[in-house]
Amino acid sequence: MVQHRPGTAAVAKRNEYNIIGADVPDETLFKGDLLVASLSAPPRTVNSIYYYDDTGSRLFERLCEEETYYLFRTEKEILTQHATSIADITGPIPLVELGSGNAEKTRLLIDAYVKAYGQTSYAAVDINHSILERAAENILSVTSDLDFLGIVGTYQTGLAQAANLIGPKLLVCLGSTMGNMHDDELHNLLLEARSALSPGDYFLVGIDLDKETEILEAAYNNQTAILTNLCVLQHLNWRFSGDFDLFKFRHVAFHNKSLHRMESHLEAMQDQLINLQKLKFSFQLEQGEMIRTEIMRKVDLHAFHDVFIEYNFRSVQHWTDSNQWYAVSLFQLAAESTELESKPPMEKML
Questions:
Q1: Which residues of 170-187 are buried (b: 16+ CB within 10 A; e: fewer)?
Q2: What are the transmembrane regions (predicted)?
């Protein structure tokens, strides 16, 4: 059983689960001033968090089932084959996951720990209370040997909770989480992870690898991907009383080879004036002008590992699928701290 320092929440008892915290306030996640700034001048952008309202979340689940969208099933395949190896390396250890979602893939990892070591502790962090309930029910439907703690909050909330755990721990960050981050966001996450963990703690990360343009562009240009991207405008309309006309935009997703990433955009099909009434903000779009909605890093694995070394994480082992399309990497925080460069050293991934 995980021990907590005084004043922190205790982990749930066997066969039960506990969820702490209220849903993260919308104003914390959807900051109108940042949106206005990102849309005020070319290149115009929208933070990818606007994908994830109820409609967007359902579409993303559907996207994971698309034949060309290999990411979800490939990471799941890796965990199916290698979860036991991960558990063997770390030994019995509590798990803390950032952005757990419904924990469908994480269940494979937890199952390996339960089979190897019996009662296991797992803290799932997500911004939504109901998705944490689904995660708990998902996992506890197949095992009772789990202490499940749901933490409603941001990554910062989860890392603060991880810092309160006494003893070794495994921080988990699967899916597209790191791949969708911009340089400053990834820099901050790695800094905070380093601060929250103790020397010897582990960090398990999933990341998509660079590959042929045809494979990448097929994954992000299927019908569900197109709908998911267009629904960003629908989200902006209902949240900020906007007047985006979805029929006046087209989905554009392409492989930016020089930056080693996929990019999703929405291209204006005619000149138009956009109004977001709740933000008291208007702007003019010209025909052919694009709004970038998401980046998806496609990394060189060794360069990606080099970035972690900059933050004092040493590479322990990594696992890939048979096609070498995706990787799950295990890192361990080293005992000696290193000085960071003044700017995030993300160019090492290029």
A1: bbbbbbbbbbbbeeeebb
A2: none
Tell me the per-residue pLDDT of 268-314, one tens digit each, with 9 for 90 and over: 999 999 999 999 999 999 999 999 999 999 999 999 999 999 999 99
Which tokens go with 1?
């059983």
- In this structure, what are the phi and psi dihedrals at residue 7, rounded to the nearest 5 degrees? 90, -5
Token couple for 27? 């104003």
Boundaries of every domain in the chain: 31-67+212-297, 70-211+301-336
Percent of the chain with pLDDT over 70: 91
Distance CA 341, CA 245 (A): 44
70-211+301-336: CATH class: alpha beta
Can you give the pTM of this predicted structure? Answer: 0.89
Judge whether residue 344 has pLDDT over 70: no
Strand partners, 329: 205, 318
Counting other chains too, the contacts that 107-110 makes at CB distance below 8 Å and 24 or more residues apart are: 107/138, 107/139, 107/142, 108/76, 108/79, 108/80, 108/83, 109/79, 109/83, 109/172, 109/204, 110/139, 110/143, 110/146
**Structure tokens that stand for 28 in this block:** 């914390």
Alpha-carbon gap, residue 272 to 152, rounded angstroms: 39
For tokens 């980046």, name the residue: 295
* Count of residues making up the chain: 350
